Amino acid sequence: MTLYPLLRPLLFCLPPETAHNISLNGLDQAAKLGLLKQTLPTDPVTVMGITFPNRVGLAAGLDKDGAHIDGLAAMGFGFIEIGTVTPKPQPGNPQPRLFRLPAHGALINRFGFNNLGVDHLVRNVQASPFVKNGGIIGINIGKNASTPIDRANDDYLFCLEAAYPHAHYITINISSPNTQNLRSLQQDDALEALLAGLKDKQQRLADQHGNYVPLALKIAPDLDDVQVEAIASAVRRHRFDAVIATNTTLERAAVMGDPHAGETGGLSGKPVFEKSTAVLKALHGKLAGEIPLIGVGGIASGTDAIAKLDAGADLVQIYTGLIYQGPGLIREVGEALVQHRRQQHRPNL
């Protein structure tokens, strides 16, 4: 855990995607050798009917195929979300497609849901000791780039059925900016049709398997108040189980002047923190606590995570901050949230 500050300069000398793959493979080997073991403070919380051992999760995107679940779990996460996965394998967008903005603690990616398909991901989940031992896994699903947007619902329903028996919860990703027209599914009519179809399929799968697996909707930070209101109304009407706020942003105002600011794709990390937290807070206000919220976007410290909880989040997820700070961030966030909750429940004297 303490070696990461020494390793990071070496990793940052490599192309970002190469460093990403090397890091995950190294993580797996360290975990197998027992060199990687971090335990967070116990902070059980029940969200979506699932009891999480702590509130700190890994956001989707880092492990798209679920190939590194056990190495990631050794860092102490209370839950791990894998994907985004699509029905069929696809290569994603051409490389280079991942860019570091170190001065801003940020990344820009345009991966485009590169993955080996949902069947491959399911096999990885089935083989994971973390999952076999009761570790909480979320599976994030999307559509293939080759699927026309008017047939997108078919892809989501296909993935939902394949992933359902193997997940504690399933996330519907309609907010990546890197698949053409995907964010149009957040609009009124398209969102209505998608959510209705998914909830109907969820109920039929629950009856089939004798197990209710919650559905979470992942939304973008680039939403105005009217759009947030529409999403809140839709998830309430269709009884969705949670909302994850938020994905990456298309805005570049916070990183203007950076050599990579002009790259297309989604911006993550510190520059998205305020924007994503504002959407989270607005959504919390409109839902009035009726539906759980998972806060993600720009968490780079324990203080950032506390701000997500104060804005209405029940759980938090990290990704880009992990790239810049390493496993120590997970412990910092976990300890900060426990301390914050203790202070909130301290009786007045």
Describe the 3D structure:
There is one protein chain. The protein has one domain (4-344): Aldolase class I (TIM Barrel, Alpha-Beta Barrel), CATH 3.20.20. Helices cover 40% and strands 16% of the residues. The chain has helices at residues 4-11, 16-32, 69-73, 118-127, 129-132, 152-163, 188-209, 225-237, 273-287, 302-310, 320-325, 328-344; strands at residues 45-47, 50-52, 56-58, 79-85, 98-101, 106-109, 137-141, 169-173, 215-219, 242-245, 266-269, 293-296, 315-318. The strands form three sheets. An eight-stranded parallel β-barrel has the order 3-4-7-8-9-10-12-13, surrounded by four helices. Strand 5 and strand 6 (106-109) form a beta hairpin. It is globular, with a radius of gyration of 19 Å. 51% of the residues are buried.
Defining traits:
three-stranded antiparallel β-sheet, eight-stranded parallel β-barrel, alpha/beta, single chain, 16% strand, 12 helices, globular, 349 residues, TIM Barrel
Summarize the structure.
With 349 residues, the protein is an alpha/beta fold. Helices cover 40% and strands 16% of the residues.
Q: Report the mean per-residue pLDDT as an integer.
A: 96
The structural domain count equals 1
Helix and strand run: HHEEEHEEEHHEHEHEHEEHEHEHH
Q: What summary fits the major beta sheet?
A: 8 strands, parallel, barrel
Report the helical percentage. 25-40%
Stretches where pLDDT is under 50 for at least 5 consecutive residues are: none
CATH superfamily: Aldolase class I
Enumerate the strands of the largest sheet in spatial order, edge to edge or round the barrel. Answer: 3-4-7-8-9-10-12-13
CATH class: Alpha Beta
Task: Please identify the structural class as seen in this structure.
Answer: alpha/beta
Distance between the termini: 40 Å
Strand content range:
15-25%
